[in-house]
Amino acid sequence: MNRRELLKNTAILGGASVLSTSLFSILQSCQSEPRLGWTPTFLSPEHALLVSALVDTLLPKTNTPGGLDMKVDLFMDAVFSKLYDDKAQEAVVVEMDAFNQQCRSKYGKPFYELDATQKGAFLKEAEANSPKFNRGVWGTAVGEQKPVGFYRSMKSLAVWAYCTSQEVGSEILAYDPVPGDYLGCVPLSEVGTVWSL
């Protein structure tokens, strides 16, 4: 090997070692940034990150699947897109921006960029300061329901989406299909007490 080739290979090796360190740090920083694994139909990318962060904080993965495992954030995006009218869509966008602005005022960054402790503290404060739903009878609120605000409505939608997903409904929650199995020939002694309505 001549001197020119040796110098060239040494320069390439030195450049590669410097470059690999830089690339490694860039890749590491990308892994810590929140990312979407889906394409929203209604939400902007920033709003979708907010919804995903809210879902993940409210319904984290434990020994049962979390809200993101059940694709609650995708479901919420579909609800905003298909069930909200123009006025409601505008309102939810304004409320999301206001929610993120409150986070920026308090922590200097939007909700989806906060660490787990900051997210928990921020939602604990939102829980304490948000109006509550009226008590209900058979699914209907008693009295006139006042607006519950962004946090409470997002929490309600996320929990509803999670609990009504097929996997959670059939494998985690108690599941008794109605009307149930038809058993035509059962001895009366096995039926037991007559059911009341």
Features:
197 residues; 59% helix; mainly alpha
Structural class: mainly alpha
Shape by Cα distribution: elongated
Low-pLDDT stretches: 15-33
Helix content range of the residues, please?
55-70%
Quote the distance from N terminus to C terminus. Answer: 95 Å
List the secondary-structure elements in sequence, H or E.
HHHHHEEHHH
Radius of gyration based on Cα positions: 26 Å
Mean pLDDT: 80
Please report which band the strand proportion falls in: under 5%, 5-15%, 15-25%, 25-35%, 35-45% or over 45%. under 5%
What's the tally of helices?
A: 8
Number of strands: 2
What this model shows, in words?
This protein is an all-alpha fold and 197 residues long. 59% of the residues lie in helices and 2% in strands. It contains 8 helices and 2 strands. It has a two-stranded antiparallel ribbon with strand order 1-2. Helix 2 (45-58) packs across helix 6 (149-163) and helix 3 (72-82) packs across helix 6 (149-163). The longest helix is centred in the N-terminal third of the chain and has 30 residues, at 3-32. The radius of gyration is 26 Å and the shape is elongated.
